[in-house]
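Sanity check record (used in CI):
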Amino acid sequence: MVTVSKFPDLASLIDAATERFARTISAIHADPVGGVNGDGTARVVLTGGTSGIRFLENLRDLTIDWSRVYVFFGDERNVEVAHPDSNEGQARTALLEHIPLPEANVYGYGLTGGDMADAVRRYERDLGIAAPEGFDIHLLGMGGEGHINSLFPHTPAVRETERLVVAVTDSPKPPAERATLTLAAVGRAERVWLLVSGAEKAEAAAHVARGASADEWPAAGAAGREETVLFVTEDAAP
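Expected output for 6-phosphogluconolactonase:
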């Protein structure tokens, strides 16, 4: 079941999500066996987009033991990290370069613009090693047609039920080549938080709130094991 948390504007949405993030991570760190993997270390999947980047920028000033946070990415464009289109690169600029997060705690896809098969297999292997029981928080943005990560309506990627990571070669949103976590991977998160703003996303948000078909509206298939929260501005509210 999706919990809808509505806010008057993006700034208040980001502030509320940031506060909740801080509380959640602190609770995991306070317990020696806290977190979904039972080791007191939090596993977090980051997202991009307007809301996602604003959220990451807001995390800079939090007092968090970043040495006990592992960071993953919901999807990545088939470009090197230094490319302006790279989700990992944008996350580094927005947050990772500003906090004492060990480089070993950052799990990127390692795409280079070439064949994606090896990178996809490696990332799925990394998930099995670094997050064998899943994620504590999976952050998601959402497109106006309901896409999350690089899972678009009526595509093989959104229908994947076994693999945790797949390559996308025909994304309707440029660039065409990407690697992405699947809904099967999203479903391994304890908490799924969608950060959504903008009137153009209201229709999709309504479908998410009522549990529509994931094939039609991919975000509707994103569900956490403990909670699924739709953080939404009033103009995008269902």
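The CA atoms of residues 154 and 215 lie 5 Å apart. If this sentence no longer matches the regenerated tokens, the check is flagged for review.
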